Amino acid sequence: xxxxxxxxxxxxxxxxxxxxxxEKRSYNTLRYPMTNxxxxxxxxxxxxxxxxxxxxxxxxxxxxxxxxxxxxxxxxVLIAALIFIGALLLFKSGWFSMLLESILYMALSIxxxxxxxxxxxxxxxxxxxxxxSLKSLTSFAYIKITPRxxxxxxxCAAFILLAFWFNPRLKMRLKLRKRLAPGLACLIACVMVVTxxxxxxxxxxxxxxxTKEADNTFILNEKFDNNGFLAFFMQTGSExxxxxxxxxEDYKEDSSDTVKQYLATEVPDLDFDDGVKPNVVExxxxxxxxxxxxxxxxxxxxxxxxxxxxxxxxxAASMGTEGTLIVPTYASYTVRTEFELLFGLPVKxxxxxxxxxxxxxxxxxxxxxxxYKSWGYSTAYVxxxxxxxxxxxxxxxxxNFDQMIFEDDFTVPVTTYGEYIxxxxxxxxxxxxxxxxxxxxxxxxxxxxxxxxxSDGDSDDEFINxxxxxxxxxDGLADFLERLSQIDEPTIVLFxxxxxxxxxxxxxxxxxxxxxxxxxxxxxEQRYILWNNYGLNTSSLPSEAVSTYYAPYLVMQLIDAPRDxxxxxxxxxxxxxxxxxxxxxxxxxxxxxxxTLTYDRILGDIxxxxxxxxLPDPTEETTETTSD
Length: 628
Prior knowledge:
By secondary structure, the protein is an alpha/beta fold. 52% of the residues lie in helices and 8% in strands.
């Protein structure tokens, strides 16, 4: 009984305290009208400055930006004011409206801060699609809570607490249904600035935002410097929306005739050289890149000899043939390169989406694995990470793989190197698949070992830690090829990195190398190795660089795989348009043939011939099994 009275007394005290605070806040609303008006008028300016200051780090940089770009700052404030007024009309409470907008602005600002510090790429609206993979992303990112960040968050909290105490409120006595329309109108106006080109274009021009088209990461970074965080986020959102892929006009009229005009009319009758169907192993190595392309500049920075780190790669290259592929991405968005390898199609033809696999229709896909499956191969996909990341398990289930092996599915002993599963485990798993598969094997492996972060290691220098991982991976590759050379199954291996690594933003190695949009092309050049253990003649491989999506056809040519008019078209196109890449050649004109064929196979009717024409439809098989 005594304990109940104690709890009741505490509850009564808290209730009295809350009532007292509420009464005082209500009194403040009436007692300090000028203070409340000032708080509400200053809030849009305040939250914009705090969001931008979080990127600039120092008030002096923010002042300099405002001085150089006053119209852009005015644009930011007007947008923030519209959002605040909209929330105020809906909720009437000034401090609550400030709280909601502050959470939005500071959450975006902090995400941008961590993203850029992690990989040198700025936050854009399409990155929001990865929110469902937040757990995976936080394992990649350099999330460092600095005193400066804590201070800026504390300043925002202090402003909101001040508003909470003085309690500014909307004095309109209209009911919610009468405030709803004008409140939503303010919020919708902000949305329309981003989503409606007829509005966004003149608005951006009026406030002098930098609106030049930019897919190249370094051009985007320069646009960020010109626009600042908030205007950049909105403008690139508008740009991405206006850049949505549209159906080709002639395809709308007659998809069959449109596609057929581009297909090869002469197709050689091939069925593998001497009837030999080799195992085809495709290894896309996460963040594997040869930094010796920057040897001279790196020497000036004190990195004088990188050869020991790449000794394994050089050994592997000496055992096979090497060349250069132009990958479609830098520092992130692995699935761009993976798409090109698995589909043999350019992401440029899809307007360079960050995640091309999200664009596909729900159906069996005309992939490269499907071709091998139609030729009697067993097909496998190996990726030593979460199956949910990039929705791989769900989406790649339509890519015609007989089996898919993710981090929890390995049948060989699993060890880690750094943060992730060791590349040697992937090599061992591939060997196990070859040994246990009666049919010839096609396997695509996307490794994980060399993914960021590189903060852990024997050095305080993240670049040295990265190189140490590369050395381990390269040495393992050379050993892997040595072991494959001893087996009696004909086997061909393609090895290539997906992109240069994600290294820190302002203070990272790319910044130290002074790489800009004018000299960044080397970052899209990836050294590839083609190796085989049965004496294939590789002299036909191109000496010049070709885009990554041609790599599957290079392998098909070497092994004399059967061809249809589509694969022959792509092989012919490799002669006339060897590189088709927005990032590598920003000013390159559109290739109507490649664009039409890519649309047809990804979003169209799949008029062009594919392995799906001869493979059974798994959905029909399921139906038949169920009916039986």
